[in-house]
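Quick one, tokens below. Sequence please?
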């Protein structure tokens, strides 16, 4: 299966990033795709938060093992492990010092039998970051 994500940021009105990932890609693959698409500093800490419909944080996947509270690691978490339905929401925190994040929404799940090696794919990038 292929998962299609829409990423927005509240501080830039015309910004849109769309990325597709294979179900076997990890959240680390997702992180790297975002970092590369936006030319972010890949030495900065980042994490994904699974959220509810109101963007309230539920559970976290971190880039590195930060403590012993049972946080999941991005490299150990496949996309299919956390993504269950269209409309599901996540936060991607990419700057902890200024609390900057991208709002991530799963907009489509496509049942394609395709080569997982070609994913992740940036489908659309528009606006200034």
């Amino acid at each position: 299966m292929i998962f299609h994500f829409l990423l927005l940021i509240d501080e830039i009105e015309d910004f849109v990033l769309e990325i597709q990932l294979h179900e076997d890609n990890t959240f680390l693959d997702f992180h790297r795709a975002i970092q590369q698409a936006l030319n972010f500093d890949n030495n900065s800490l980042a994490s994904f938060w699974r959220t509810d419909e109101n963007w309230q944080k539920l559970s976290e996947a971190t880039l590195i093992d930060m403590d012993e509270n049972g946080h999941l690691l991005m490299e150990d978490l496949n996309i299919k492990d956390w993504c269950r339905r269209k409309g599901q929401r996540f936060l991607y925190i990419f700057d902890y010092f200024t609390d900057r994040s991208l709002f991530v929404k799963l907009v489509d799940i496509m049942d394609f039998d395709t080569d997982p090696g070609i994913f992740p794919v940036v489908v659309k990038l528009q606006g200034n970051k």
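The longest helix spans residues 27-37. Strands lie at 2-8, 16-22, 47-51, 57-62, 72-73, 89-95, 100-110, 121-126.
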